[in-house]
């Protein structure tokens, strides 16, 4: 038999179970103990060893009173068996992780108002299930996340359509509505006011979203219905974090989602004004590119978003209050 034929014959006869037996024999130097390690009967282990040695064409172990000692060629073969079995084990573990989706990357565009409730819950659950999945969250406002989705910088987005024609490019699945609040700091002269009108707020400083955001569009529509002009003393700010910091620094007013300001109100850092606003703001939801299937991690994440949004929408329907479904507005 030539060398190539011998190699083919060895590959055809050698199995990974054989390698497992060789490693077990190398560790135990005893057929009985090695058989128990790989969960086979001792006669089967003995036959397997004979088959292995026949396949290689030489003895791997010398049997003597002290047990089994590897031959010179046996030492080389056992080293290979250990390496090959370790490689297979690592491959199987890595493959199992990949099969469960615990690898790769998921990039989500999200309006930051979603972070305190739905987004945080869904991401936390996803990372608990798939700790090796790299998750990135980008964006601040709906116009930003739509652009991220258009540029293919995110796999999907949480937000709103921002122009009438975007439905041609993106699918939108509504998830929930939310409460908007007019917020000031605790030391603001208007804090604790029993009632107030929008007109009475026009002379105060305001912090508002950019004109391209749905929340700002809504704000301008509210002003137009009331016959009011945009406040002269207005700071545009797309960042919710920066908006909150500004509110705590001076006597400004901002329109923000209840989910974002909830902890600040509980901590008595901010106070809501007694004026209902933003009832016509459309709900937010899942944005995806049309006719483009999602990868499995993204599809799974969408399932989590649907699951965790259900109690919010149900509570809203049964209680008649908006607070339970308060998620993003940007």
Automatic annotation (TrEMBL):
GO terms for cellular component: cytosol. SUPFAM superfamilies: Periplasmic binding protein-like II (SSF53850), Winged helix' DNA-binding domain (SSF46785). The keyword Acetylation does not apply. Keywords: DNA-binding, Transcription, Transcription regulation. Pfam families: HTH_1, LysR_substrate. One of its GO terms (molecular function) is DNA-binding transcription factor activity. PROSITE patterns: HTH_LYSR. CDD domains: PBP2_GbpR. The keyword Transport does not apply. Residues 14-71 form the HTH lysR-type domain. Belongs to the LysR transcriptional regulatory family. This is LysR family transcriptional regulator. It comes from Trinickia symbiotica.
């Amino acid at each position: 038999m030539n060398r190539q034929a011998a190699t083919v014959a060895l590959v055809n006869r050698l199995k990974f179970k054989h390698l497992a037996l060789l490693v077990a024999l190398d560790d135990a130097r005893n057929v009985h103990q090695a058989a128990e390690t790989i969960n086979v009967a001792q006669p089967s282990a003995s036959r397997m060893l004979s088959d292995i040695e026949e396949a290689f064409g030489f003895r791997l172990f010398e049997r003597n009173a002290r047990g089994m000692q590897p031959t010179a060629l046996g030492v080389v073969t056992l080293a290979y068996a250990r390496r090959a079995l370790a490689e297979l084990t690592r491959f199987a573990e890595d493959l199992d992780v990949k099969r469960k989706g615990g690898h790769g990357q998921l990039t989500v565009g999200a309006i930051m108002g979603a972070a305190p409730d739905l987004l945080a819950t869904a991401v936390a659950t996803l990372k608990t299930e798939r700790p090796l999945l790299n998750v990135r969250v980008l964006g601040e406002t709906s116009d930003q996340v739509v652009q991220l989705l258009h540029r293919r910088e995110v796999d999907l987005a949480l937000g709103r359509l921002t122009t009438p024609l975007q439905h041609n490019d993106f699918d939108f699945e509504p998830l929930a509505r939310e409460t908007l609040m007019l917020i000031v700091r605790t030391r603001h002269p208007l804090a604790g006011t029993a009632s107030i009108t929008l007109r009475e707020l026009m002379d105060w400083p305001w912090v508002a979203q950019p004109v391209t955001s749905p929340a700002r569009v809504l704000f301008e529509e509210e002003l137009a219905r009331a016959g009011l002009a945009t406040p002269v003393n207005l700071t545009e700010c797309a960042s919710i974090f920066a908006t909150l910091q500004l509110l705590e620094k001076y006597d400004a007013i901002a329109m923000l989602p209840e989910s974002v300001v909830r902890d600040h109100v509980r901590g008595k850092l901010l106070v809501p004004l007694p004026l209902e606003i933003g009832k016509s703001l459309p709900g937010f939801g899942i944005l995806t590119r049309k006719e483009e299937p999602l990868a499995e991690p993204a599809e799974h994440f969408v399932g989590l978003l649907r699951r965790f949004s259900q109690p919010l929408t149900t509570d809203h329907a049964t209680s008649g209050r908006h607070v339970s479904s308060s998620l993003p507005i940007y």
